[in-house]
Hints:
Strand order of the largest sheet: 4-21-10-3-9-7-8
Structural class: alpha+beta
Radius of gyration: 29 Å
Distance between the termini: 52 Å
Strand content: 5-15%
Number of helices: 25
Helix content: 40-55%
Oligomer: single chain
Largest sheet: 7 strands, mixed
Shape: globular
Amino acid sequence: MRGVRWGRIVGQAGRSIAVWAVSTVTLLVLAGVLPDFQLQSADGDSATRIGVTAALGAGAFGVLSAVVWPLLVRLLLLVPALVLGLLVFFLNGSLLLLALRLNPSGSSEAAPETAVIVAAVMSAVASATGAALAVRDDDAYRSRLHRLAARRSRGRPPCPAVPGTVFLQFDGVGHDVLVDAVGKGLMPTVAAWLGAGPDATSAGTTHRLTSWRTDWSSQTGASQLGILHASNFDVPAFRWYEKDSREVMVCNRPSSAAELQRRAVERTGDGGLLTLDGASRGNLFGGGAEEQALVLSSAARRGRRNRSRAGYFAYFSDPANAVRTALSFVAEVGREILQSTRARARRQRPRVKRGGLYPFVRAFATVVERDVVVAAVMGDMLVGRAAVYADLVAYDEVAHHSGPRSRDAEQVLRRLDRSLALIGKVAEHAPRPYRIVVLSDHGQSPGETFRSRYGLTLGDLVRAGCGLPVPRRAEHTRSGAEARAAVRAALRRPVEESGERHRPTDRRSEPIVLASGNLGLVSFPDVPHRMTREEIDTRHPALLPTLANHPGIGFLLVRSEEHGGLVLGARGAEIPLDRLDEDPGPLAAFGPGAADAVRRTHSFPHTADIMVNSFHEPADGEVLAFEEQIGSHGGLGGAQGTPFLMFPLAFSTPVEHGAQLVGAEHLHQVLRRWLCELDGPQVPLETEREERAA
Length: 694
């Protein structure tokens, strides 16, 4: 054993010397290439003495990177994430300038902008060299991975032998998109696990693939709340107006996420899927996990309790990680600018604007968030956590603006597959076996935007139907003209006295129109309750006919004094909710399960006065987003409601043969059952509730 230990020490020392030597050579090469960077020796400019200067400079830079950099990263946690890449380059260049000034063998010089370039290249070369040497040595590779989790492993009890579980969420990847990507060879790791690759055999198959169906609100907030906290009741959309608090709730707003999580825990009495020895990474909600990083619901906390940025320090404390991610960030910004320029030049349709800050937002989602989350998951596995749930949002962000099946989105799928392969590799070195479940929270449906097709937004159409002023661009559209004509025709009828108390008098009574993909919500803030169809007709006689008969709208959901709930469609279609199974009416185009999803949403306390779902074309799966997205989700129609679930063969089948897995709450029960099958720390939901009651 002592000989093995000494062998490892010698090997590590040899690799450190090799990295130092390569860094020294890199410094000499850069000094010869860059005009504003010079290496000078105090004893002369002979090649030997300049080489010594380079060696000492490279060594000083390495030591400063190892010692000072983690302290600087602590300060970076206070900086907005979108400027993180620029600061990484600036601080790394500052460390190089400091190293050159501390060099006792000479007085080297470098312009500040040149120092940034030199530091970035040296960090990248040192990282690549260390990684290449480590890959050739399993012990070194394992040691390198273990360093990622060194801080978190202190004080933990010995790791049990029962398997742990990693739930990896590919945000927005629909079932059909995943199947097609496997067929095209874009995701070889997924293909190998499913036994679908060119060299696959049935003996090598480790996973099975199935689909599940979302609720009407097919978006991350509703799905992830149900998956992690057992209930997504009263989440009608991604954003909605609550009349009792007079606030707009937005699922990706920290304060809203924290409130939604609190409500779910209070409603179910369930702490979450990850209650015991769990970790939540990159999610909207914590799932009851002890360890949380980049979790939005925890970002609303103040002071020490705010752990949302903890994952940044764990990852960026390694300067090589920081520089590598920063370089990838800049490359991704350039890639997005190039791709959007090419799309404009080719006049691709549909297309949305992709300028402004979007290239940086995309780079953060596809590079920074991915790198930090994947590193956090690897660290969790190496310390043996029982359950980890992580969300990778890269595909969803790109597909919104480039399209779900675009070439841009396919490139992201390739990178997601490489991340999955890396996590699978780490599992081989973890202190306990791991079962890896890969799933998505929703899909995406293609289609142009409502505005690009009709020249006005849903908000413009609602205002026109209410007889309110609309922007000039909307006045001259066909839809706007038809809405104004409908208002004039409707107002020829007398208005009943019962509606006088709801007649608008000022801007506070104007409708609030919100969009969640191809789902729209219309609320009248001056009326404290959810308005009925009869009240809306009395107040705005033309509004519901204008919306229901518009070709870009599939159906409406309203409350009715006579029928309880009512689905409205074109040409006067009116179907009470309790008759949808016999006569689906306008819901027929949205497939099985649409009626149940609409009925469930109707029962929510904070459902909007008017719920608006866009038109859907079953032949090609297209919808019309009320937001500026050509790949959207949030409502009914198309692939957005059919995500995937890929699980190990060791787990039981999610549902009985012939049945379908419907809703995020049902999926939570399946995942919890799988944790119990592993004899892990989680207990069945019913048992936990009984224990809490006792």
